[in-house]
Amino acid sequence: MKKYNNYNFYIKFINSFLNSGLKIRTKRNIDLMLNKVSIKNNIQPIQVLYFIYSKLCSIIEVKKLKIRNRSMFIPFPINLKRRFYLASFFLKNGILERKKKQKKSYSTLLELEINSILANNQNNSYTLKLLNK
To answer: Phi, psi (5° rounding) for residue 17?
Structure first.
């Protein structure tokens, strides 16, 4: 089993928001956003990422299986890669929901969404996560 350290965690976060191969621009925008959020909340940037993923990660996933002509919903544990993907998916979809209401840049909307997650306010990412369960 592979061991994930902070750097891999950070790289996975950047890669989840990568758009058409512009890695340097995406990394710069995410670094600026993480610095703003960490200064505002007085915590380190990697702790911001851990808190986001702990809030949005699921441990089990319910899948529909057909057994003997019957449909059953069965819970399955999720591996670490799938958890990262689902948390990123909920965060990105929460930002897209915000974008429909507010006409701001993507990095600003990401900052607003993360601040609302940290403050335990009503946010789109957590609502989408609950709807998908």
So the answer is: -105, 10
User: Residue 2 has which token pair?
Assistant: 């592979």
Q: Which residues, listed in sequence order, are joined to residue 25 by a DSSP beta bridge?
A: none
* Assessment of whether the complete model's pTM goes beyond 0.90: no
Distance between CA atoms of residues 91 and 17, nearest Å: 10
Identify whether the C-beta of residue 60 lies closer than 8 Å to the C-beta of residue 75: yes
Taking the C-alpha atoms of residue 83 and residue 92, their distance in angstroms, rounded to an integer, is: 14
Looking at residue 43, the DSSP 8-state letter turns out to be S
pLDDT tens track, the chain, 133 positions: 455 566 677 888 888 888 777 888 888 988 998 999 999 989 898 888 888 888 888 888 888 999 888 999 999 999 888 888 888 888 888 888 888 888 888 888 888 888 888 888 766 666 666 666 5
- CA-based end-to-end distance of the chain: 28
Q: CB-side exposure of 39: number of CA atoms within 13 Å?
A: 7
- Distance from C-alpha of 84 to C-alpha of 13, rounded to nearest angstrom: 8
